[in-house]
């Protein structure tokens, strides 16, 4: 059978804020820039994840493919039950049936344990333990992950010893929608919207966020 692809997309404004905090979180990066620096990094594609717009533009070209499902982060936050059921239907009818069986017990559990509050409890602890302890995976396929683990595990701050940087790792931070409004200047908002319009023109991606003001005004 053909592989299926679930593409999760979040508006670039909140993505940028999240990346800004991520760079500070990994002390091994020794990142000392302010938000203006992070903004310019994003605008110039100076990120380990590459060009946000190129990635989603290429995937969106296949959004009508039956093996591709686009899931909008903001929609998940607004109605998590609908989002979970949407994914289940995409994977196959048997998945939706399992979620809804026994008065929807599994569905309720999925919604609960995938919430930001619950993920803060266990995901952050799990990732902290991963970086604070020795790397346990064997094999060449883990070489990249092993190197990143080594950098974080051995990072020293001025006051702390090795592995102390793991204490500062919180992969799940806020998970809210619209926090970007607390960071962007009017000029930065204007520049990113213009970049969005330029990079996604004709693709229909702006329709994913009808209230974000991404649509170009017709003269």
UniProtKB/TrEMBL annotation:
Q: Which GO terms describe its molecular function?
A: sulfotransferase activity
Domain of life of the source: Eukaryota
Record InterPro entries: P-loop_NTPase, Sulfotransferase_dom
Q: Quote any Pfam family the record assigns.
A: Sulfotransfer_1
The chain positions of domain Sulfotransferase read 2-121, 165-203
Annotated keywords: Transferase
Its family remark reads: Belongs to the sulfotransferase 1 family.
This one is known as Putative sulfotransferase
Species whose genome carries this gene? Rhipicephalus microplus (Cattle tick)
């Amino acid at each position: 059978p053909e592989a299926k692809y679930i593409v999760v997309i979040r508006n670039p404004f909140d993505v940028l804020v999240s990346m800004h905090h991520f760079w500070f979180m990994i002390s091994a990066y020794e990142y000392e820039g302010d938000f203006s620096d992070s903004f310019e990094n994003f605008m110039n594609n100076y990120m380990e994840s590459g060009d946000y717009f190129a990635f989603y533009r290429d995937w969106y070209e296949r959004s009508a493919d039956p093996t591709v499902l686009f899931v909008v982060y903001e929609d998940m936050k607004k109605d998590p039950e609908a989002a979970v059921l949407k994914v289940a239907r995409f994977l196959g009818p048997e998945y939706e049936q399992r979620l809804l069986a026994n008065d929807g017990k599994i569905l309720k559990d999925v919604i609960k344990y995938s919430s930001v509050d619950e993920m803060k409890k266990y995901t952050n602890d799990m990732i902290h333990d991963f970086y604070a302890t020795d790397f346990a995976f064997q094999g060449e396929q883990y070489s990249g992950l092993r190197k990143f683990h080594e950098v974080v595990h051995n990072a020293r701050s001025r006051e702390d010893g090795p592995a102390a940087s793991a204490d500062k790792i919180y992969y799940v931070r806020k998970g809210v929608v619209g926090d970007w409004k607390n960071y962007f200047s009017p000029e930065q908002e204007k520049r990113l919207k213009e970049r969005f319009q330029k990079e996604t023109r004709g693709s229909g991606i702006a329709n994913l966020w009808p209230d974000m003001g991404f649509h170009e005004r017709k003269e």
